[in-house]
Design brief:
Mean pLDDT: 90
Shape: globular
Strand order of the largest sheet: 1-3-4-5-2
Radius of gyration: 12 Å
Strand content: 25-35%
Helix content: under 10%
């Protein structure tokens, strides 16, 4: 198994709130300015990685919608100005 892609946002993808979406605190972003609503980012924790859509950012809370498929399969959705993994 290769090195996991660099995370933009640490999210436990098994934790959902009443919205039915995984969530985390904006403070868990490596670069919070890269986490606007509508952005596609790499999320996860430990060895787990996924591309996700940032559904909303409300105060300190970020909700994401993980996409099906691998990070490699969804890489075309990520911003081109990402730092190298």
């Amino acid at each position: 198994m290769g090195t996991p892609a660099q995370l933009d946002l640490v999210v436990d993808l098994n934790t959902m709130d009443d919205t039915g979406l995984p969530w985390t605190f904006l403070d868990d972003a490596l670069r919070p300015e890269r986490i606007p609503q509508g952005a596609h980012v790499i999320v996860g924790s430990g060895q787990i990685r996924a591309v996700a859509l940032v559904v909303d950012v409300t105060g300190d809370i970020v909700h994401v919608l993980p996409l099906r498929g691998s990070v490699a399969a969804n890489a075309h959705l990520l911003s081109e100005d990402r730092p190298a993994s």
